[in-house]
Amino acid sequence: MSGERAPSQRVDPLGWLRVERLGKPLNRRMFVARVKGHSMDGGARPIEDGAWGLFEFCFHEGLAYDEGRDQPIVLVRGEFRDPETGSYTIKRWDRHAPEIRLVSLNPDKTRFPDIVVPFEAADPLRVVASYTRALGPADYARRPKPQRLPGRRVVDGRGGLDEQSARLERRIDAFFEGLPNPDDEDEAPSADGWRSRLVCLGAEAGGLHVELGPLLGLPPFVKKLRVVGAEDRDAVLLAANARLRAARAPMSPASGPWRVEAIGFEDEADLGLDRLAAEALPGDAVSVFRLDAVGDGQRQAGRTLALGQVYRLLLPPGLGEEGLGQPLTSGWRLWTVNLTAPPSPLTHAALQALGLSVGEAWPRLSWALTPPVAWRTTARGEVYPVFETGAEVAVQVCGLPGDEAEPADAEPASVFLRGPTGVERLTLPLGGEALVSLGALSAGRWACALIHPQTAVRTTTLVFEVADAAVPRVDAAWTVSVETSPDGGVELSTLVVSAPPGWPVTFSWRALSVAPLATVHADEDGVVEVSKVSQALVERARRVRVGDVLVDLAELGSEARPCDRRPTVEQVRAELSALWNERQGLVRARRGAWLALIPAWFTPVCALLGYTLEERRATTAHSPDDDPNGLAVWRLLVDERDGAALRRRAPRVLVLTEDLDATLRDRPDALDRACTDPREAILTDGVRWTLFRRGNRRRQTVWDLGEALTDDSFEALLATLAEGV
Amino acid sequence: MTLSLLTTTAAIDQLQRRLGATPETPEGLCAALRAEVHARGHAPRAVTLDRVRRLLRPACDIDEERLAASCDALEREGDLILAPGGVLWATPPRAVPLLNGSARLFTSLPTPALATALGRAPVAQGAARRVEWDTRLEGAITAIGGRVVSPETWAGLHRAPPADGAFLSHLDERLVWESCPPGSLERDGPLDWRGWAPEGVRPGWRRGLSDARLWWAKTSFGGHRRVWTAGGGSPATAPFVDLSSDDADRARFALSRLTSATATAVVEHVGDSALVELPKWLPRPEYRWLSLQAEAAGERAGNACWRLPSAAVDHVLQLLANRLGVLERGR
Predict the structure, then answer these.
(1) Where are the beta strands (DSSP E) in B174-263?
(2) Contact (CB, 8 A) for A402 and A410
(3) N or C: which end of chain A has fewer CB within 10 A?
(4) A 143-202: CB under 8 A from B
(5) How large is the angle between the packed helices A714-721 and A569-589, nearest 10 degrees?
(6) Could you tell me how far CA A592 lies from the centroid of its own chain?
(7) In A, which residues are within 8 Å of B47 by CB distance?
(8) Would you tell me which residues 29-58 of chain B have a C-beta closer than 8 angstroms to some C-beta of chain A?
(9) What is the ipTM of this complex?
(10) Which one is predicted more confidently, A270 or A242?
């Protein structure tokens, strides 16, 4: 380059570096630069290749720069050719007529010779800056930060990679530790993480939902939560679910505001559930929900919709054009707006009429192709996907800006991937969509971000995990437990059933036949809610002495629990006394009117004695038409257990007569005919009762029911007439 | 890791490797649906369909109806459970060994995970999966939380009553014990109730029937309600009991049996096999039993078609006649 003027060279700053322990005041002329070359690697204070050096701009013409006996180290530009650095060099300045010597400190003068410039050739020399000293790691706070320009992000070069890597690393840490995202200014979490929010799913999935949780710290005595809206619209959630993860309850958009209460502890103010109250949706404005990466609509306060995103808009009655969106309840409508492509003029006009504008670009990043093997929840209730180690993970990018306007200003966005093995970047083509493979990833925590150089285009980040053996297990195990009652039966109110989550469990009552009562699906913790079924079972068990509760889990198996009930003498006496007190007048007044007295008197009395009265009136074996003087016969049926099976037998008949004494005295043959099979009859006029055995002509005990209920003969009455007491 | 742009062709290849089938085929759609539901444990059906569609969209445009039909097939097979409220649930593994040396597999567990657990790859045909069976696989099934069940236990015919008058009497008994008040399903607005008309040119759901006992309506969120009344009006005006879809299907056959318009089967013999056309709404036990005897062979004229050996036709028709009152057309 002899004879040529040294070319000027544009120097772009990399950024700012915080310097500490300098020992002298900083000024605006100071800068830090990385030294390149080995020519100054020598002497008492060597300047090594790659060291960060502190310089101060001075700009002297070479010939005029005379520091006397001092020989400062300076940054010089000239027409020379430094073997390592060209026309710029850092050397010790030695001005001594008739020459200026730029001295290398490295003792190897063969490789690193001094640069000698005679005075007559020194015009082009410029001392650009004086060197102060090298900076050690203790002298600066962090690596140089890329210079930040207004409206721009640092995405390019090593600086961009480093910056986005650090940002994504912070995002990963915050996400999995359950902390607020340090780079996200929109979130305002509560102190302990309890939160409720409104989420909008598709119309077919229920539309608007109130989402609670996770409610870490909710006392264990709270079993159920009720989300209460206006007009007594409510929904019940299991507290066990809401403690550990977000739980949702579908609600009509018209039913706000909503509050949450603990069932059974509605007056307990210290539970903190008042913090979960949610305001009603406005009745005169559209409510905006932006679809997240998993397709759930998250509520947005702003009225500006972003290009590249998909929205669900809830329209109150009377707002917006008729026919816009899908109808929901109470006149509300749900309109899904897809802005991954620029909206049509009609859509644009409809949005404007609703007070919405389409503004900033916010390209959408979502999972594609490879389904996760599991979804897990952080402590803050944020759901994230888990992929299998080695799975080829892919993401879809939509709504990239670039093609539609001002192509000269168009800049590509980039996908950054940060994980255990480092960070990687892929620059995307301009505009439209792109499908990006993240490759086959190793186990660990990862973040994938779509980042545009312009801050006007919002960033989207997906956080996920890659793990071995992450496929969830659904176990076929199930259990049935119930406590035994003092009388040897079962306490149906203590019935507890567990099954695989979501599994249908059919509850049936089995007597002589099987009567299915209800099918209940287990919840996500495998608990089967049996309270309503228990009531039906208790009612069935109350009416019969023998029966089974069947719990059927289809191909997984079934279990039968016997519910045999043997009432005590006191129980029968009490119930029969109540019945007698209520209806004795009717019995006495309507004697002989058997058809009327059967349902009102004889059926319940026989039930208390352990019999079911057959509906159909029996006839005598020898003479079907032989029924003089009001002698009417019904079979008495008893259900009893025969091993595992239940069977019904007819041990006796009920013979009704208006004159019991006369029948016993004058018509034993007729009674014999009534007792062909079975061979015993309970003979009664409603008030007086006795047992007749076929062929027996001896005097039998006759009980007056009203008297027997109040004296010691009641036990003998039961012993003779009753079954199963 | 290596970030790269994927072409549509590469995307389809990747999807095919992952699902074990071409994405648009019934096998591919079923694989995608199983994976989605099993990963989440449970999710609303409508949301699941939407998510799967979006997941596959970069590779191919999935027909919504075909995806929904695949979801219905998985639920009918037993790989997924559809609970009230329209929520799909993952299921544990159940293996049903058959006499021919294979076993049918029923679970939401994706095929790759199933293959890893069993040490051999199941073969998929539509929503059905089978594997070559030997007794050593019992331990493998148990190890992943599953059960090995006999064909009889799987079908569960012994647990389900025949579709006849006694079954309908049980429904009437439930009306006595546990009926719900009229109109109680219509807090959010009136439902479009249709009554089951077993008679006429073609049995079906009709509006405007006042004497129907079995009713169906689609709810505003896309779910279905099936109920039983005592007659004299729809559930909007008469007390009712809720029915499972299975009980409702059984009631359809029972009602048809009581009328002159019994359900029919159409049999077409082709060589050594036969194609049997049956109503699509077989109750679950009968469907399961039949699916172990025959192969699903599409649809014809709104009915489901089944292919089975000609020698087995009489046995199949006999059982369906006994249990559901289905008679062969022309007999």
Answers:
(1) 194-197, 204-206, 214-218, 224-229, 240-243
(2) yes
(3) N
(4) 201-202
(5) 90
(6) 68
(7) 201-202, 205, 295-296
(8) 32, 35-36, 38-42, 44-47, 50-52, 54-58
(9) 0.91
(10) A242
Name the amino acid, one letter, at A484: T
Residues in Cβ contact with A175 at an 8 Å cutoff, skipping those fewer than 6 apart: A181, A378, A382, A384, A447, A463
Give the phi and the psi of residue B205 in degrees, each rounded to 5.
-85, 130
Superfamily of domain A15-139: Umud Fragment, subunit A (2.10.109.10)
Cα–Cα distance between A591 and B44 in angstroms, integer? 63
**H/E element holding B174?**
helix B165-178
| Helix residue spans in A178-263 (DSSP H) | 239-244
C-alpha distances in Å from residue A113, one per residue of A1, A91, A641, B42:
17, 11, 113, 76
| Sequence-separated (6 or more) residues with CB below 8 Å from residue B131 | B95, B102, B103, B105, B118, B120, B121, B122, B123, B137
Give residue B277's identity as a one-letter amino acid code. E
Share of chain B above pLDDT 90, in %: 65
Residue type present at position A461 = T
Amino acid (1-letter code) at residue A545: R
The encoded tokens of residue A674 equal 């009534």
Supply the DSSP symbol for A64: T
**Which pLDDT tens digit goes with each residue over B84-141?**
778 899 999 999 999 889 999 999 999 999 999 999 999 999 999 999 999 999 999 9
Q: How many CB atoms lie within 10 A of CB A120?
A: 9
pLDDT of the residue at A205: 78
User: SS in 3 state form for B278-308?
Assistant: ECCCCCHHHHHHHHHHCEEEEEECCEEEEEE
The residue behind tokens 């004058």 is A666
- Interchain contact A249–B (C-beta under 8 A): no
Distance of CA B175 to the CA centre of its chain: 27
Collect all residues with Cβ–Cβ distance below 8 Å to A360 and sequence separation of at least 6.
A304, A306, A307, A456, A457, A458
- Environment class of B313 (CB within 10 Å of its CB; exposed 0-12, middle 13-18, buried 19+): buried
B1 to A373: CB separation less than 8 angstroms, yes or no: no
- Between CA A79 and CA A84, with CA A81 as vertex, the angle to 5 degrees is 140
Taking an 8 Å cut-off on Cβ atoms, the answer to whether A429 and B5 are in contact is yes
Indicate the domain borders of chain A: 15-139, 196-350, 364-452, 479-562, 569-721
pLDDT above 60 (res A626): no
pLDDT at A185 over 50: no
Beta-strand pair A680-684/A645-656: parallel
Q: Give, in order, the Cα–Cα distances in Å from A479 to each of A96, A489, A495.
A: 100, 19, 11
Q: What is the DSSP string of B30-60?
A: HHHHHHHHHHHSEEEHHHHHHHHHHHHTTT-
Does the beta-carbon distance from B54 to A419 stay under 8 Å?
no
Q: How far is B225 from chain A (nearest CA, A)?
A: 14
Predicted TM-score (pTM) of the model is 0.76
Tokens encoding A533: 């079924």
Q: How far is it, in rounded angstroms, from Cα B274 to Cα B257?
A: 25
